């Protein structure tokens, strides 16, 4: 009887041993399929990120062109027309009168040169790459403050460092979107922008003192805000939008290096 | 002549033909080395069968065929280890692992040769070698899955080659461990359970290898284009 039992045990052990490699191979195959799915998802996410980046670049370019065109029309052309009139000095004008007109024209032309220099520093993707996020936001804030449409207060805390070209581009685009929202919909008179750099955290906060909105009444059905949240997610950032009627709007973008996507760190040239 | 064409020998010969057709020097030294290994295996199997026939006729003056399989063990250890060195080497430095394995095999082989001579099969060496190959196979799978790039296993020559070895070695180990229990279980009047297990293992091993050679040929052809 014992002999029969041992025989059975041996047979069962043999069958198990013979089946073991089958399960092993099946497991390897299953894991490999999962890896394939993961790689495909990663590629899709990366392609989505590149598309979004391109979209952000195009939007920035469009905004820059609109700004340049408006500046040329409202400012440069007007001043130059005035200079043209000024220089059409009548023949009977005295030497002193002519010198006065020429002096005035020189000043106006100097002003136009300054304006054109500012325009050349307009906000493009290259500028973010060259100057960095802080400097680019400073230029934009300076331009808006100069126009007198709204008063922007900028505060930079901590040791400012590069967050990666693509991440800075997306952050700047979110800043532009928030600024546009504040200018178009909020009726705010004041805007506070703060960039806080910590060793393992970065915060961008944009706070206006406008009319604010409740959750269901976001401007444009909330598509602009959703866009901000989605873009923030693409660079591994979290976006928190806090607003209530009469209490303005506060947009806070936080980047925690532990959760950010690795591909967001790549250089512009190496992408796609 | 036809009486030497047993099931095992036929499967090995078919695998050898596929290897000759599919593998050339362009496939790389490691893959090409499968052709001489299979030639050696076929020669050893046919000689083994021939010696067994003589032994069964005259048990007094002839010695069993174990010495042939003991010699074959050396070639199997060398060629298969070389191939594993190449396959695992695609991911990590495999030299220390393979050299250690070969050193252990050599030590055991030497010990068994001194202990009971060449005319008795080196069971301990064979079992240890099989366990080594199982470890190499699992290590290869681990590296394959750990690697960032995706490999379509259906057409992966390396995967099928290792799968064949894994099946064979698992079966070989269990058959060695339970040899005395399994060999007394008769399936037919002529064949014991171990014999049938070995038939199945041989068919699985050489089918997997044949398919892996075909996959290798496809890969080589694609790379050539």
TrEMBL record, chain A:
CDD domains, per the entry: HATPase_UhpB-NarQ-NarX-like
Database matches in InterPro entries: HATPase_C_sf, HATPase_dom, Sensor_HK_TwoCompSys, Sig_transdc_His_kin_sub3_dim/P
UniProt keywords, alphabetically: ATP-binding, Kinase, Membrane, Nucleotide-binding, Phosphoprotein, Transferase, Transmembrane, Transmembrane helix, Two-component regulatory system
Pfam families: HATPase_c (PF02518), HisKA_3 (PF07730)
Chain segments annotated as transmembrane: 6-28
EC number: 2.7.13.3
Annotated catalysed reactions: ATP + protein L-histidine = ADP + protein N-phospho-L-histidine
Domain Histidine kinase/HSP90-like ATPase: 166-259
Gene Ontology CC terms: membrane
Molecular function as annotated in GO: ATP binding; phosphorelay sensor kinase activity; protein dimerization activity
Family matches, as Gene3D superfamilies: 1.20.5.1930, Histidine kinase-like ATPase, C-terminal domain
First-tier enzyme category under EC: transferase
Identification of the protein by name: histidine kinase
């Amino acid at each position: 009887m014992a002999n029969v039992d041992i025989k059975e045990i041996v047979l069962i052990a043999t069958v198990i041993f013979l089946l073991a490699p089958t399960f092993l191979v099946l497991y390897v195959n299953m894991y490999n399929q999962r890896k394939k799915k993961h790689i495909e998802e990663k590629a899709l996410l990366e392609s989505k990120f590149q598309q979004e980046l391109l979209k952000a670049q195009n939007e920035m370019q469009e905004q820059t062109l609109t700004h340049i065109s408006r500046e040329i029309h409202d400012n440069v052309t007007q001043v130059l027309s005035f200079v043209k009139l000024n220089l059409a000095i009548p023949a009977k004008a005295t030497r002193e009168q002519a010198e006065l007109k020429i002096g005035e024209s020189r000043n106006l032309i100097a002003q136009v040169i300054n304006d054109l220099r500012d325009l050349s520093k307009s906000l493009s993707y290259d500028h973010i790459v060259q100057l960095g996020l802080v400097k680019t936001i400073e230029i934009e804030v300076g331009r808006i403050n100069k126009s007198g449409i709204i008063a922007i207060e900028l505060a930079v805390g901590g040791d400012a460092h590069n967050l990666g070209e693509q991440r800075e581009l997306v952050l700047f685009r979110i800043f532009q979107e928030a600024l546009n929202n504040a200018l178009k919909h909020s009726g705010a008179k004041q805007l506070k922008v703060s960039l806080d750099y910590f060793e393992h955290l970065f915060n961008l906060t944009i706070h206006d003192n406008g009319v604010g909105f409740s959750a269901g009444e976001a401007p444009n059905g909330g598509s602009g805000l959703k866009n901000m949240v989605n873009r923030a997610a693409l660079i591994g950032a979290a976006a928190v939008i806090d607003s209530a009627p009469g209490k303005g709007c506060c947009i806070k973008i936080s980047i925690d290096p532990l959760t950010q996507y690795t591909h967001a760190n790549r250089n512009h040239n190496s992408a796609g | 002549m036809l009486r030497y064409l047993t099931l095992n020998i036929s499967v090995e010969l078919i695998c050898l033909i596929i290897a000759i057709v599919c593998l050339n020097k362009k496939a790389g030294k490691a893959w090409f080395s499968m052709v001489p290994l299979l030639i050696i295996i076929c020669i050893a199997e046919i000689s083994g069968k021939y010696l067994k026939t003589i032994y069964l006729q005259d048990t007094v003056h002839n010695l069993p065929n174990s010495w042939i399989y003991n010699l074959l063990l050396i070639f199997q250890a060398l060629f298969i280890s070389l191939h594993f060195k190449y396959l695992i080497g695609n991911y990590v430095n495999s030299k220390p692992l393979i050299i250690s394995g070969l050193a252990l095999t050599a030590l055991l082989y030497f010990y068994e040769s001194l202990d009971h001579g060449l005319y008795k099969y080196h069971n301990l060496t064979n079992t240890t070698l099989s366990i080594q190959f199982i470890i190499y196979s699992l290590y290869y799978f681990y590296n394959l899955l750990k690697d960032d790039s995706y490999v379509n296993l259906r057409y992966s020559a390396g995967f099928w080659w290792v799968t064949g070895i894994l099946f064979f070695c698992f079966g070989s180990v269990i058959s060695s461990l339970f040899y005395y229990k399994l060999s007394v279980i008769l399936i037919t009047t002529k064949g014991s359970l171990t014999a049938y297990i070995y038939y199945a293992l041989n068919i699985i091993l050489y089918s997997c290898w044949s398919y892996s050679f075909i996959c290798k040929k496809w890969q080589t052809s694609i790379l050539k284009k």
